[in-house]
Every structure is written in structure tokens, then in C-alpha cells.
Amino acid sequence: MGILFVAIGLFVGYGTAYLASGEVRYLTRAGLEEVRILEGRRPLEQMIADPKTAPETRGLLSLVVDVRGFADSLGLDAGDTYTSYSDVGRDTLLVVLSASPKDCLCPYLWKYPIVGRVPYKGFFDTKMAAKEEKKLADRGLDTYLRPAGAFSTLGWFDDPLLSTAMGRDSVELAATVFHEISHNTLYVKSATPFNESFAQYAGYRSAEAFFRARGDTLSARRAADRWADEQVLGRYYTGLTDRLERFYATRPDTAALEAGRAEIGSWARAQLDSTVGPALRTYRLGPAPARPVNNARLISATIYRTRLELFEAWHERHGGNVKQAIAALGALIEGAEGDEAFRRLEAALAQAPPGA
Q1: What is the reported pTM?
Q2: Are residues 10 and 144 in the same domain?
Q3: Looking at the structure, do residues 228 and 292 belong to the same domain, yes or no?
Q4: Residue 216: half-sphere exposure toward Cβ, Cα within 13 Å
Q5: Are 248 and 124 members of one domain?
Q6: Rounded distance, CA 120 to CA 3, Å?
């Protein structure tokens, strides 16, 4: 999932110079957890060779080794990421907090060295997360806490494969590995939606290419279908956010705000039942819960599904060759920050392709 959790031990000393004591405690806990994860690493090859390793686990670890090799062939910077395995000893690695005002799709931002401004914050300590969520909710913000099973340190450390990522089927595991490795390859400062949406594209399209190269056409098709589903969901969220932004632009008072959010929430549930659900190929939607709009929850979902059609168009522009598409995209956005990355991609797609 590419959670850019770089607030680790490397930055603790630096952070004390400018962060409040609560943030210092947060960074210290993050650093200690990262050290624990790194100290618990075992080489994948050792795990695979160990007769005590369960056959199912051995198969998944072998898949990760093969995925890493294929990532190199695609020009992705695998480095030493996922050459080892670490058991975190629990089902949930960390929880991630998002927040937003109730009358604006405006993510609350946390600022960190190197990565810039990030619209979420990861916590290994659930009590610390709940405390910060309450503090933001008491200020009248929408808040959302969600679990996460993987993160990337963007190449600062040799990230191990975590036990929390192992409960996935082979297609999802492969896509996750490609997703996280892609963060080492292409990263735009202060552009989380671009980074995560690119990683979604890279994850599923690389997984499709990987399984096709192995002659596993069924898994390749599943990877392609999941990428198609992500695009369906991306279009749904675009429609929903457009509707909300038009409504918020009217600057409703408190009563009108709650009524309008409830009405748009009903519209969104109807869309899931009538249009989105039937269009999905691999995901299955249960009955949508009757809940009001939560801007923080919505922002969290759209981070990974922002303008996915641009990445797919870029993929097609490069003949469906994921290696060429990623290399060309890296060259295109070199030196970009923030929204400039999407602007460059959109402008490039607006131009006629070479030789047209």
C-alpha cells in the first residue's frame, strides 16, 4: 500500500529540534518499531530452504523472489527490498489516520523531512493513534483510522517482506511487491495521490506482465481485471468528489451541510448498487452501509485512485509495455513536485504521440 512512513529512527534526532514533544515520542516509537522489524529479518532464501517453513508459505516466498527478479527486468529499483522476511507478531502492522474539514475535501497534512507534506499519518501505537484522532475530531474534523499491512521506506532501508502482507492470494501479493518497489523507483515530493496512483498502475500492470511471462494466463487476466476494477472505482470516486465539491462551494450552514452530506451519501450508495457493483470484475460489494459522507474516509480512498485513466492512457501510448511506460514517465516528471507531476503527465498525453 506504499505508506510513506519515513518518520523513523533516522529522523528522531533531527525531529527533536523542531517538533513538539508529542511528535518526538511518535518518531521515537516509529524508530523503535522499525529497528525491531529490521532486527527480526530472515533472508527469504533461508526461509525457503528451511524444512520447518510451511509449504504454502514457501510457495509465496518463492513467488516474491521471482517477482523481485522480474521487477529488475522492468527497470524497477528493487535493490534489496523484499530479500528478507520479518514476522511482526500481529495481524495489523499499523493504523493510518486521515482527517479533513467537514465542509471541504481538504486533507489535513503532516510534514516530514524529505517526503514533504503527507495526507496521512501511520501509527504503530493504536492508543496514540486514537488520542490524535480524538484531538482532531474535537476540532470538528472528519477523521478515519484504517489498518495497513505494508509500507515503504523509499529505499532508505532494505524493507523486508512483512508477515502482514502474506495473507494475500498470489496475484495480490505480486501486485503488492511491485507496488512497494515502484516507490523506490519513482517518487514525487509532496504528491501522495500521484505516487500512490502510479504505484497502483505499476503494481497491477507489472503483475499482469509477470504472470503472462510465466505462461499463467489466468493470473495475468486476474491482475488486469483488478486494475480495471481500480479504474471503475476511480471513476466512481471522481463523480462523488465532484458532486461534493460543487455542494461545498455553496458554503452551506451547519444544518444544510449535514442534510446535503446525507443526501449525497444516499446518492453514492445508489451508485454502488446500480452502476459500480455490476461493472466490477473481481471485487464484490456487499450492501452499502447507511452512513453519512466522511471526507477523511473519501480522501483516504481516492489517494490510491486519482486520475488512474492518465496512467492507463500513458500505458497505451507506450504500446502496453509497462517497462517503457515507467521509464518514460520517470523522465517526464523528473524534478517535479506536488501537482506539477499530474500537470506534466496530462500535458504530455494531450500532445500527439511521436510519429502520429
Answers
A1: 0.83
A2: yes
A3: yes
A4: 14
A5: no
A6: 8
